Amino acid sequence: xxxxxxxxxxxxxxxxAVTKRLGLPKPPLLERHEPGKPxxxxxxxxxxxxxxxxxxxxxxxxxxxxxxVETDVGSVDGRGELAALLFDASGIDxxxxxxxxxxxxxxxIRALRPSGRVLVLAAPPEDSAGVRGATAQRAIExxxxxxxxxxxxxxxxxxxxxxxxxAEGAMESTLRFLLSARSAYVDGQVIRIESGHLATPADWDRxxxxxxxAVTGAARGIGEAIAETLAxxxxxxxxxxxxxxxxxxxxxxNRIGGTxxxxxxxxxxxxxxxxxxxxxxHGRIDVFVHNAGITRxxxxxxxxxxxxxxxxxxxxxxxxRLNDALLGDxxxxxxxxxxxxxxxxxxxxxxxxxxxxxxxxxxxxxxxALAPVLRERRATANAVAPGFIETAMTAAMPVTAREAGRxxxxxxxxxxxxDVAETIAWLASPASGGVNGNVVRVCGQALIGA
Length: 450
Ligand SMILES: NC(=O)c1ccc[n+]([C@@H]2O[C@H](COP(=O)([O-])OP(=O)(O)OC[C@H]3O[C@@H](n4cnc5c(N)ncnc54)[C@H](O)[C@@H]3O)[C@@H](O)[C@H]2O)c1
Known about the structure:
Blueprint: H1 5-10, H2 13-21, E1 44-48, H3 55-64, E2 82-88, H4 99-108, E3 112-122, H5 131-151, E4 157-163, H6 172-179, E5 190-193, E6 212-216, H7 221-232, E7 236-241, H8 246-255, E8 259-262, H9 270-281, E9 285-290, H10 305-328, E10 332-341, H11 344-348, H12 354-376, E11 380-386, H13 392-395, H14 399-407, H15 417-428, E12 439-442
Parallel strand pairs: 1-2, 2-3, 3-4, 4-5, 6-7, 6-9, 7-8, 9-10, 10-11, 11-12
Helix pairs in contact: 7-15, 9-10, 10-12
The structure holds nicotinamide-adenine-dinucleotide (NAD).
């Protein structure tokens, strides 16, 4: 049963009538990934502004998905007919040409079905030749973020994918993720794709086949979901957590057919112990997910030095030390992936979380700085920034703060651990080599932060 009782109530026949009469929001039921279901189950519309370079590569990906691309968009007039609206805006080189966005989306937006997808493909503004081009490309972000806010009540999402010149062939894993139900709680994001070292998986449902992955904090919560999802997509998973969580950790590792290592990542011997373990058992690691994290909330005036130190050490400094061990010893395999779990608190700040927000903002700095280093090694570093996720941590929040956290997003609900896990699995894919140095929020377009 959903942990969100209000959502269940508002979607029941009786409760729905009551909440409607009271003018209360109805949190939509989000479609999530189910094995065997087609990735795109209704026709999609594809449009382009003149002079774009992304329409053909997008069409090619859609062909591979067996998606039906509606050729006569003028005939679309019903509600809920289309699974996705895709638009290549890369050719827009002047603000007066932004009107092509309006012209494509205005007649079609009502035809988007629930849990539908809007994807705008564009160029990074800084790559544009000239001021006019950069202005127009940057303007697109305001459009996409607003569309996301307007369609969220329907469970639908909108994203902007900025593709650098030469990276047209690197879009497939990202398009598959964003079009699918796996991205249910990712909304209003700007994702940048560059050319990178990629490998196309033999089976898109199991892109991590033959890869080894490690997840810290895997005994429960979001880490458990990450370990499960990576295993489900074919990875051999090493589950890591503190010795006191050993029982839960073994249970998770056994269930997913992985292995476990009890390790306090803050310990002075932790980097060497991890390196020894990986070298001895696996030889190398392909995907390392820094998920372990703690909170010790108090306003700054009341915060003890111990609370500051503990949070910074678990959430940030230990990650830096583990990365040094992985990279210094060459333990991260070719095409390796480092993925860190940040937080929207690290983007926007949050009252009572000076220690936590500092640590989570530091993670963003870390992946930004690591990205060019890893690119040289044909690897990537990225972060996910969850918003309100339904876990033991958020279940323990005071009821008013919990309700506010749940409702103040475009999708009017909290996310599930699997939503964070699916986002990490996309970044972990060998086909995602063009996604590097990104910070992707998994927050249902939460109203706090950017
Ligand atoms: N739950 C949310 O809404 C939310 C939102 C934003 C970000 N996050 C982040 O997601 C991550 C997971 O959060 P969660 O809600 O699943 O938390 P959780 O407390 O349920 O799980 C965290 C896990 O990390 C482990 N851990 C803690 N210290 C460790 C250490 N020193 N060494 C090894 N393992 C250690 C814990 O034992 C636990 O199993 C954290 O980084 C958290 O900051 C969570």
